[in-house]
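Box 3.1 A note on notation
Throughout this textbook, protein chains are presented in two layers. The first layer is the amino acid sequence; the second is a token string describing backbone geometry. Keep the layers aligned when reading.
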Amino acid sequence: MAENTTEVVVGGIVLAAAIGFGIYAAQIAGISSGADSYTLNASFRSLEGVSVGTDVRLAGVKIGTVTSVELNTQTFRADTIVSVAQNIEIPDDSAIVISSEGLLGGNFVEIMPGGSPFNLEEDAEITDTQGAVSLISLLLKFVSGGDTK
């Protein structure tokens, strides 16, 4: 009987630790209920290296995540929805670009704030976008010494 009680207690501790780890991992990953954020839309020519869950940063600080990526079959652009923390107000003339963490690092979405006194509202579209730049095309352009199309 004592062995059975010990096994139940140890099993409960392991289960509690697993639940605690899951909650911690969700907080670190930025997974939330969405009640404390709002969404913005953008359309990119190239979204290379970006997918759902990719960080959205402002001045290098994570302020949100990419929540949806779909190909628009009429414009052949990547329609993207990003979720931004509710307490971050972004000017309506801001730009959104795909940036790289370096040669071997991954890509992330960066918001470049504008100077407008008016801010973007929920579900607004950021029209000033810059897609991902392919490292291979840049290297080819550099090596060839001219324009490559």
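The two ends are 77 Å apart (CA to CA). The chain is about 25% helix and 35% strand.
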